[in-house]
Amino acid sequence: MENIKMDTQDSKMVSSTPVKKKLMDVKLGELPSWIIMQDFTPEGIAGTFQRFYFKYH
């Protein structure tokens, strides 16, 4: 019997978390999907204001 070695490093892994792009990095054609991916929950909106406050204040 031969020993068969499976090479698992060539398999691509798909991430379930989308990469966050800043609005200025989004192309016009990507804008609708970018808007859909944003977090419009109360916690998400509060987090956005909190990041803005600590970054610019």
Multimeric state of these chains?
single chain
The radius of gyration is 20 Å
Class by SSE composition? mainly alpha
Number of strands: 0
Give the N-terminus to C-terminus distance in angstroms. Answer: 69 Å
Q: pLDDT average, as an integer?
A: 78
Report the helical percentage: 25-40%
* Strand residue percentage: under 5%
Low-confidence blocks of residues: none
Described by strand count, sense and barrel closure, the largest sheet is: none
- The outline comes out as flat
- SSE run: HH
Q: Count the helices. How many?
A: 2
GO molecular function: proton-transporting ATP synthase activity, rotational mechanism
Membrane topology: Single-pass membrane protein
Family: Belongs to the ATPase F chain family.
Organism: Nyctereutes procyonoides
Task: Characterize the structure shown.
The protein has a domain of 32 residues. The protein has two helices and no strands. The longest helix is centred in the last third of the chain and has 15 residues.
TL;DR?
With about 55 residues, the protein is an all-alpha fold.
Keyphrases for this structure?
mainly alpha, mitochondrion inner membrane, ATP synthesis, membrane
Topology (SSEs and partners):
Elements (H helix, E strand, L loop, with lengths): L30 H7 L4 H15 L1
Main location: mitochondrion
Organism: Nyctereutes procyonoides (Raccoon dog)
Pfam families: WRW
